[in-house]
From TrEMBL:
<dbReference type="Pfam" id="PF12911">
    <property type="entry name" value="OppC_N"/>
</dbReference>
<keyword id="KW-0472">Membrane</keyword>
<feature type="domain" description="Oligopeptide transport permease C-like N-terminal">
    <location>
        <begin position="25"/>
        <end position="56"/>
    </location>
</feature>
<dbReference type="GO" id="GO:0005886">
    <property type="term" value="C:plasma membrane"/>
</dbReference>
<protein>
    <recommendedName>
        <fullName>Oligopeptide transport permease C-like N-terminal domain-containing protein</fullName>
    </recommendedName>
</protein>
<feature type="transmembrane region" description="Helical">
    <location>
        <begin position="31"/>
        <end position="53"/>
    </location>
</feature>
<dbReference type="InterPro" id="IPR025966">
    <property type="entry name" value="OppC_N"/>
</dbReference>
<keyword id="KW-0812">Transmembrane</keyword>
<keyword id="KW-1133">Transmembrane helix</keyword>
Length: 61
């Protein structure tokens, strides 16, 4: 294995552990976890909103 591959694995493992820590902290406070879910839902809706209800093209001619 190359050094880059090993470094990448170590880096990804550290990031995964950090993510697990954040999720653990979020689960400790239920209100924070619910707020995160609501915010993620709103962001996803905002991203796909043009697909759901496209702006009418006849307004601009």
């Amino acid at each position: 294995m190359s050094k880059k591959y090993i470094y990448f694995n170590v880096l990804m493992k550290q990031k995964l552990e950090t993510l697990k820590e954040y999720l653990y902290l979020l689960k400790q406070n239920k209100l924070t976890f619910v707020a995160l879910i609501v915010i993620l839902f709103l962001v996803i809706i905002a991203i796909i909103a043009p697909i759901i209800a496209p702006f009418p093209s006849h307004i601009y001619g």
